[in-house]
Design brief:
Butyryl-CoA Dehydrogenase, subunit A, domain 3, about 50% helix, alpha+beta, Butyryl-Coa Dehydrogenase, subunit A, domain 1
């Protein structure tokens, strides 16, 4: 059923206000992004601002006071925030994903889920998964976690060591992947509040890019959580069908994030080329056909990304998708992130040493955009899935 003209107009006006607000926040975040990157410090103040703007509840269901925003809206918010501070956008994206996934699967205890949602509406209650381990690596490649969940009369005892816990300086909850201590191990996710005894953060994050995400190690030592904080316990070999929209959200929103980074790099480059006037040229670099052609190539890459990301996001919001939407979104991620990397690289090829100077943001944008290759699903896994689909191989 279509909306009435008045409701459509009100919705459009609300969207305009939202995106104007997001643009203002991104501009503010950009003024501090270089400092947080240099110091590898967490941008606490950005999340205070996001909370005040009511943007932390974007993927929380309306029944609990959230906004239940569509895929395209979430993409636009993430893209714009990433153009100001990519690290802030990555923590925000992970928070959005956890809420979106929980809302779709509803495998959590209803009272626990409602409490978490309402906390995310009324205050700052950031949420993210804790899955990667030193020995195991990424769970996307298979294997059994070393983190142990032991059931006792009063709840669960969680013990383990997780890596790359994005947002750890400010997360209120960790969704911890663990195996149950029993002869025939089961696995599952367990909700661990950060303020419990035995929860410890070790500041290990010192990476090339996304330096302000606070993706430190999480240490859990006999952390006691209530029985109902076990979220989706199941036998190891039980096949749980993947929700195609869950897969789509992760790939599309990450694609939008790195589109935002590449767009910020393009904007800096355009400004630099218009302002830079070598004495031997007597005009700005922007007047040279070589530079115009290269910037045109960047524009083509970014335009392709916009069409890929938002056409699929709009299809999902209209309900016009099929069972392959998860793989289609992964394909978008493969193309969009590679395009984003290439777009920033072209800027380096054009201007040389100034692009690598830490006083210019292009160097930071390049380090950040390279991180797109790390997020699950990675390029080889996407191409393998695409190849098997085309060859009709199901194993």
């Amino acid at each position: 059923m279509s909306q009435s003209p008045v409701l459509e107009a009100n919705t459009a006006a609300s969207s305009i206000d939202l995106f104007e607000l997001v643009e203002s926040l991104a501009a503010d975040f950009a003024t501090r992004a270089a400092v947080h990157d240099r110091d590898s410090s967490f941008p606490f103040e950005n999340f205070q601002a996001l909370h005040q703007a009511e943007l932390l509840s974007l993927t929380v269901p309306r029944e609990f006071g959230g906004q239940d925003a569509g895929y395209a809206t979430v993409c636009r918010v993430i893209e714009k925030i990433a153009s100001g501070d990519a690290s802030t956008a990555l923590v925000l994206t992970m928070h959005y994903l956890q809420h979106s996934n929980a809302a779709r699967t509803r495998r959590w205890h209803p009272a626990v889920y409602e409490q978490l949602c309402r906390e995310s509406v009324t205050g700052i209650a950031l949420l993210n998964a804790a899955r990667v381990e030193p020995e195991l690596g990424t769970p996307a490649r298979g294997g059994l976690p070393a983190t142990i969940a032991k059931q006792i009369d009063t709840g669960w005892l969680i013990t383990g060591h997780k890596q790359y816990t994005t947002g750890s300086p400010m997360l209120s909850y960790f969704v911890v992947w663990a195996r149950i201590d029993e002869e025939e191990p089961r696995v599952g996710s367990f909700l661990v509040p950060r303020d419990l005894s035995g929860v410890r953060i070790v500041e290990t994050w010192d990476h090339l890019g996304m330096r302000a995400t606070g993706s430190h190690d999480l240490i859990l030592e006999d952390v006691l959580i209530p029985q109902e904080y076990a979220l989706d316990v199941h036998p190891l070999n039980t096949f749980l069908a993947s929700d195609p929209l869950k897969l789509a959200g992760g790939s599309l929103w990450l694609s939008a994030l790195y589109q935002g980074v590449a767009t910020a790099a393009r904007d800096w480059l355009v400004k630099y080329l218009n302002e830079r006037q070598p004495t031997n040229l007597g005009a700005s670099l922007a007047t040279l056909p070589r530079f115009q052609t290269a910037v045109g190539e960047i524009e083509a890459l970014l335009y392709a990304n916009q069409r890929l990301i938002y056409s699929l996001a709009d299809d999902i919001d209209r309900g016009e998708y099929d069972a392959k939407v998860g793989l289609q979104a992964q394909t978008v991620k493969y193309l969009a992130t590679n395009n984003a990397i290439r777009a920033v690289e072209i800027g380096f090829e054009l201007i040389g040493n100034p692009g690598l100077s830490k006083k210019n943001p292009l160097e930071r944008h390049y380090r950040d955009v390279l991180c797109s290759r790390i997020h699950t699903p990675q390029n080889d896994a996407i191409c393998l899935s695409l190849g098997k689909s085309a060859l009709k191989i199901t194993t």
